Amino acid sequence: MKTLRSLLEAVGITDTRVPQDLMIQSICQHSRDCTPNSVFFAFSGLHTDGLLYAKEAVERGAVCIISEQSIPRDLENRGLYCYTVSQGHRIFALMCAELHDNPQDKLSVIGVSGTDGKSTTCDYLYQMLKANDVKAGVLTTVSMDDGSGKIDSPYRQSTPEPDQLQAFLARCVENKVSHVVLECTSHALSKQYDRLAGISFSAAIITKVTSEHLEFHHSLEEYAQAKVNLVKALKEGGLLVTSTDNNRYQIFIDALSDSCSAMVLGKDIPMRIEFMGYQGVVVEIYGQHLLTPLLLPSLATNALLAAFTASHLLNKEPKSLLHLIAHLQPVKGRMHLIENKLGIRVIIDFAHTADAYEGVFSFAKRTSEGGDIIAVFGCAGERDSTKRPAMGKIANKYSSVIILTEEDPRKEGNQAIFSDLRYLMHNPLCTIWEIEDRRMAIHKAVSIAQNGDTLLFLGKGHEKSIERSDGKIAWDEIAEVQTVLLKEEQRRGCE
Q1: % of the chain at pLDDT higher than 90
Q2: Which of 34, 141, 277, 284 has a C-alpha 20 to 30 A away from that of 189?
Q3: Does an H or E element contain 263, and which?
Q4: Are residues 284 and 408 both part of a single domain?
Q5: Which residues, listed in sequence order, are joined to residue 314 by a DSSP beta bridge?
């Protein structure tokens, strides 16, 4: 716990009215989370205004309210400490860090950003550090380890809100973690949300940057600049690692301070990646030929980004770590192969951008050996709609059958999403069905698949829910697909 006065002073607010001994137990942005002696940040969101919940926060024990808007007088007259500020999200992040005694300063934090491959790259780096006996932590869309063991991430967001993030970092310190690998989303890095304010990074990895989240960032340039903020947060002597796959790599290099350095795979370090189908890919680098279990060239590139970052953190020659790539464990829901007795190749993947679709579908085509490609997918509702036509076009180019279904339609509804996905689907040789219920879509795809066909289930990956207009339902894509395959094996009498 910290005193309210010390927390306020840490973010530049001086108020001599505040008792010196008023201790704060928690800092919250949701009124339901408030406890006795808490600080409540009342933010305006997409659908509601936090000030509408201020009275509930006070009833639950909040003694201080901070907002970017004028706070109603009836709240100020209740003996509360109320402050109207600018850059409220940044102040929220800095105050949360202060409450937990700034755990980020006691850790070597490595940030990973980009469009696709963030979670995978984080996990690869985490695995490599662990293989070198480093007490490492990780926090991604998929998983979390605060030093007490790796579990599925309990958080709704890939990069959680500052109260959750700083509590995680504090647990890492308590558990004697030395290095934390952190997935850094464009929302978290944006100046609007600034969830990572106050964190200085030892290293930054930038994977390939393509179009995404334009419903929030409005342009690709604005989206890329949000990710540049990670590079600007490198501490003195920090390292940026990226590759020529990221054709925007120069804007990240240009953002480096004089004390930091960069390593660009494919430019500073020549490499070649050879596709080997389901055997994996061969990486040729430093005269070595490494057969890896990674199915896509992009996965191999991300593994190399992780290896070179690990070498910097461990002060080792990169050559000495490359062998670890051959032993990397796959990440849940990423090119996830499902075994079956039907003779069907089944892949579950989190792919949700045009670039990721090109990688997965081109892999399926090159390994199809004449079989059909049957794809089941949708697209997230109330999110970037500009990417949908390109995703549909790629799927339509490679597939024999497409089944459009729900992903997370939210209140937008599936039909509007399907219309966007269909916009550039002009291949007459591809059959397109619409089955809104995802479970039924999976049943249909499995029922029509024959020996030698490839089934692609895209968009959900590891996720544990589907967001519909009336709320969330529990979902486990891997378990659902396995269940349907087992029933189909029994129906067909497979031994």
Answers
A1: 91
A2: 34
A3: strand 261-265
A4: no
A5: none
Residues 113 and 198 in one domain: yes
Is pLDDT above 80 for 45?
Answer: no
Tell which of 94, 117, 148 closes a domain: 94
pLDDT at 212 over 70: no
Q: In terms of Cα–Cα distance, which of 332, 282, 311 is closest to 152?
A: 332
Tell whether 174 and 322 lie within a shared domain: yes
The distance of Cα 253 from the centroid of its chain, to the nearest Å, equals 23
Residues 81 and 132 in one domain: no
Q: How buried is residue 241: exposed, middle or buried, by Cβ count under 10 Å (0-12/13-18/19+)?
A: buried
Q: Considering only CA atoms, which of 249, 344, 253, 244 is closest in space to residue 301?
A: 244
Whether residues 165 and 73 fall in one domain? no
Count of CB atoms within 10 A of residue 352's CB?
A: 24
Nearest to 28 by CA among 70, 56, 69: 56
How many domains does the structure of the chain reveal? 3
The DSSP output letter for 476 is: -
Q: pLDDT-based confidence at 243, cuts 50/70/90?
A: very high
Q: What is the pLDDT of residues 246-269, one digit of tens each?
A: 888 999 999 999 999 999 999 999
Q: What is the pTM of this model?
A: 0.95
Domain holding 236, by residue range, is 100-327
At residue 332, what are phi and psi to the nearest 5 degrees? -55, 130
Task: Kindly list the strands in the beta sheet with 108-113, ordered across the sheet, starting from the edge strand earlier in the chain.
Answer: 151-152, 143-145, 136-139, 179-183, 108-113, 201-206, 234-243, 261-265
Residues 73 and 119 in one domain: no
Please say if the pLDDT value at position 215 is more than 80: no
* Domain termination site, one of 327, 362, 394: 327
**Cα torsion 254, 256, 259, 261: sign:** negative
Whether 112 contacts 121, CB under 8 Å: yes
Integer angstrom CA distances of residue 464 from 130, 155, 441: 27, 11, 18
Q: Do the beta carbons of residue 26 and residue 163 sit within 8 Å?
A: yes
